[in-house]
Design a protein that fits this description.
The chain contains 2 helices and 10 strands; from the N terminus they run E-H-E-E-E-E-H-E-E-E-E-E. By secondary structure, it is mainly β. It has one domain: Distorted Sandwich (Deoxyuridine 5'-Triphosphate Nucleotidohydrolase, Chain A), CATH 2.70.40. The N and C termini lie far apart (46 Å). 21% of the residues are buried.
Length: 165
């Protein structure tokens, strides 16, 4: 089945409050991700280096296609200027996940720094859809070819397979 570049993704509104803030949409014609909004009843204060908090988005999606996934990413401005990043780095939405989307938010600034307040309706993360390859695995005794890198592992990029660093 060919991968459509404009698939239709089902979206459920789980909390009507989110309609006042914004439904998922691209903010520009060439944006890679859609913004996710905080669907909160009241402002949420995030403290530096405190445990990550889960922020509800008020929506659920269902891709139902094994060749798609959604990646929840930090918004670059919030991460750079304010220190708000995702608690797990990147969130993955599997194609069969249909529950509410939550954003794991963590304030990476040093202890004693200013807190950050997430207000209802704030854009807090972005969702990017990506194609997924689902290979089959073939167990082998050795690989069918060798590379310049050889068996070099972590930290071996650009180092010849001679063993000399």
């Amino acid at each position: 089945m060919p991968l459509s570049l404009t698939p239709e993704i089902e979206v459920r509104i789980l909390n009507p409050r989110i309609q006042a803030s914004g439904l998922p949409r691209y903010q520009s014609d060439l944006a890679a991700g859609i913004d996710l909004y905080a669907c909160l009843e009241e402002p949420l204060t995030v403290h530096p280096q405190a445990p990550a908090v889960l922020v509800p988005t008020g929506i659920a999606i269902l891709m139902n296609d094994p060749h798609r996934a959604g990646l929840i990413l930090a918004r670059s401005g919030l991460g750079h200027r304010k220190g708000l990043v995702l608690g797990q780095g990147v969130g993955t939405l599997d194609a069969d996940y249909g529950a509410e989307i939550f954003v794991s938010a963590w304030l990476r600034t040093p202890p004693g720094s200013e807190t950050l307040t997430i207000n209802p309706g704030d854009r807090i993360a972005q969702l990017v859809f990506v194609p997924i390859l689902r290979p089959t695995f073939r167990i082998v005794e050795q690989f069918s070819t060798t590379t310049r890198r050889g068996d070099g592992g972590f930290g071996s990029t650009g180092i010849e397979a001679t063993g000399i660093e």
